[in-house]
Design brief:
Elements lengths: L2 H8 L6 H7 L5 H8 L5 E5 L5 H8 L3 E6 L2 H10 L4 E4 L12 E7 L7 H11 E14 L4 H8 L22 E11 L1 H9 L2 H4 L3 H18 L5 E13 L2
Parallel strand pairs: 1-2, 1-4, 2-3, 4-5
Antiparallel strand pairs: 5-7, 6-7
The site of S-adenosylmethionine (SAM) has 21 residues, from helix 4.
GO molecular function, one term: S-adenosylmethionine-dependent methyltransferase activity
Keywords: Methyltransferase, Transferase
Pfam families: Methyltransf_11
Length: 241
């Protein structure tokens, strides 16, 4: 990916904030517990977007501050979670004081950060002994039509998340995978595809052609209750010294 395309895609989410909120999956509770621990703590949800992961953190009784650079994504988060402290900011420049959070989470977002700048910034806001937790819902190809769906997008839909490389003061990275699934109707599946950053930046004719093929696949495989899309939820955690 060129630097221009990276920037275009990293900033594409605001344009699809509404469909993102309606169609993207949340995260399994056991994965969230593995990332944050059992005890309620102060959590920074970084790259929080419309608040998909934020919701699980609140449900687990954590005290959450949500940060994202996109005002349009944050508008969706504020509408859904009006009591959450939601701030504009980026991983490279966090709007938080030093040593003020116990855990920093990033759902489906860490790959948009510049680790060389973001990791020292995350270390700055974490208390000593605090934790960085990263999570991605990724394709599960064990079901035939799902493999067919994601194969339409070549290598844009990875099968596994690369082990994130961290630097001191972060310690070794632990990895664990959880299962997750999402029930979708036709509009839901089309929206889920339309909210992908590589689809959001396509010209209209190309995007429509792609969504047409996804619609045809849906019509072939859906039952009366739509489809169930399985995911493998890849989680990584590392403790700050
Ligand atoms: C795929 S969305 C994930 C949103 C949410 N965490 C979720 O789980 O659905 C990626 C988010 O990362 C945000 N983002 C992009 N670059 C970022 C950066 N440098 N720092 C923080 N967030 C960033 C985008 O604005 C977008 O809301």
């Amino acid at each position: 990916m060129t630097t221009d395309e990276f920037h275009l895609r990293a900033t594409s989410f605001g344009g699809v904030a509404d469909v993102y909120e309606r169609t993207r999956p949340g995260y399994p509770d056991d994965a969230v517990r593995w990332l944050t621990g059992d005890r309620p703590v102060r959590v920074l949800d970084l790259g929080a977007g419309t608040g998909k992961l934020t919701r699980s953190l609140i449900a687990a009784s954590h005290d959450v501050v949500a940060v994202d650079p996109s005002e349009l994504m944050l508008a969706q988060l504020r509408a859904a979670l009006p009591d959450v402290d939601a701030r504009a900011g980026s991983a490279e420049r966090l709007p938080l004081d030093d040593a003020t959070v116990d855990v920093v989470t990033a759902g489906q977002a860490y790959h948009w950060f510049d680790p060389a700048t973001a990791l020292p910034e995350i270390a700055r806001v974490l208390r000593p002994g605090g934790r960085l937790g990263l999570v991605w819902n990724l394709r599960d190809d064990s079901v035939g039509w799902v493999d067919e769906l994601w194969s339409m997008f070549g290598d844009h839909e990875g099968r596994r998340a690369d082990d994130p490389e961290v630097i001191p003061p972060f310690g070794p990275v632990e990895q664990r995978t959880f299962r997750h699934e999402q029930r979708l109707d036709r509009d839901g599946l089309l929206g889920l595809v339309a909210s992908r950053s590589y689809v959001a930046i396509l010209a209209a004719p190309e995007r429509d052609e792609l969504l047409g093929r996804v619609g045809t696949l849906y019509d072939r495989v859906a039952g009366p209750d739509g489809v169930v899309l399985p995911y493998l939820t890849h989680c990584f955690r590392s403790t700050r010294a």
